[in-house]
């Protein structure tokens, strides 16, 4: 008998608040409030903020488990998860790309619960290479400001949905399980999704945070 796949919530506790316009992954900078939220993961947040402001185009390494957990999946699978989260679910929290993987920022303790939920779900075996980072782990986050790139190539570490508020909504393990199962069932990105670059770039998507419930 299959484990029951949770239904997505129909109301998120709070919007991301990144502004009225769409956000895309090549010009997605962290706001001052978003930077403060990221820094809250550190033991000394003020020192972290001072360091980032001095080097806004450099990535940083942050500990997980207090302000957030992170679920890391292969990039293509992560984009499918995001499409389902934004088209059918409550949206997402901050999301980044790092070295070919999608990093979904999640509620603390998600890293502890999601693996066991996937183990009970019959589609869990089809979810590729899920890495859950929680207490005791650290992850690399993109720069606060997207660096200018004269060659036109996007950096391998960048924000897809940048932190925009001091208290962003973060999905829990049930929501991410739902997204994993939907993506694993083989549903690709919706045909109506509009790429922001010509040429059919499947890695260039728009996630309109103004639609958050």
Q: Can you give keywords for this protein?
A:
single chain; 213 residues; alpha+beta; 5-stranded antiparallel β-sheet; two-stranded antiparallel sheet; 9 strands; 17% strand
Question: What can you see in these coordinates?
Answer:
It is a single chain. The chain has 5 helices and 9 strands. With 213 residues, the protein is α+β, with helices and mostly antiparallel strands. A 5-stranded antiparallel beta sheet has the order 6-3-5-4-8. A two-stranded antiparallel sheet has the order 1-9. α1 (32-39) packs across α2 (45-54), α3 packs across α5 (173-184) and α4 (110-120) packs across α5. The radius of gyration is 16 Å and the shape is globular. It starts with 22 loop residues before the first strand and ends in a 6-residue tail after the last strand. The relative contact order is 0.28. Residues 1-27 and 187-204 have low confidence and may be disordered.
How would you concisely characterize the structure shown here?
The chain is of the alpha+beta class and 213 residues long.
What is the tally of beta strands?
9
Please outline the major beta sheet. 5 strands, antiparallel
Mean of all residue-level pLDDT scores: 78
C-alpha termini separation: 33 Å
Count of separate DSSP helical elements: 5
Task: Give the radius of gyration.
Answer: 16 Å
Could you spell the SSE succession in H and E letters? Answer: EHHEEHEEHEEEHE
**Side-by-side strand order of the widest sheet:** 6-3-5-4-8
Content of β-strand:
15-25%
**Contiguous runs where pLDDT drops below 50 for at least 5 residues:** 1-27, 187-204
Helix-strand category:
alpha+beta
Shape: globular
Percent of residues in helical segments? 25-40%
């Amino acid at each position: 008998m299959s484990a029951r796949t949770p239904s997505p919530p129909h109301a998120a506790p709070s919007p991301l608040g990144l502004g009225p316009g769409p956000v895309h992954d090549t010009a997605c900078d962290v706001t001052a409030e978003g930077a403060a939220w990221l820094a809250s993961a550190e033991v000394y947040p003020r020192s972290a903020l001072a360091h980032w402001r001095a080097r806004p185009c450099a990535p940083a390494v942050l500990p997980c488990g207090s302000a957030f957990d992170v679920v890391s999946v292969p990039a293509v699978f992560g984009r499918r998860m995001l499409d389902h989260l934004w088209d059918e679910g409550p949206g997402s929290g901050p999301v980044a790309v790092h070295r070919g993987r999608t990093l979904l920022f999640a509620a603390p303790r998600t890293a502890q619960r999601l693996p066991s939920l996937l183990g009970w779900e019959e589609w869990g075996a089809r979810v590729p290479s899920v890495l859950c980072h929680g207490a005791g782990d650290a992850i690399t986050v993109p720069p606060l400001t997207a660096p200018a790139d004269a060659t036109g190539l996007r950096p391998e570490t960048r924000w897809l949905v940048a932190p925009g508020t001091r208290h962003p909504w973060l999905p829990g393990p049930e929501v991410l399980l739902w997204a994993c199962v939907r993506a694993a069932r083989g549903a690709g990105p919706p045909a109506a999704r509009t790429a922001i670059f010509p040429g059919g770039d499947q890695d260039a998507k728009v996630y309109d945070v103004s639609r958050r419930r």
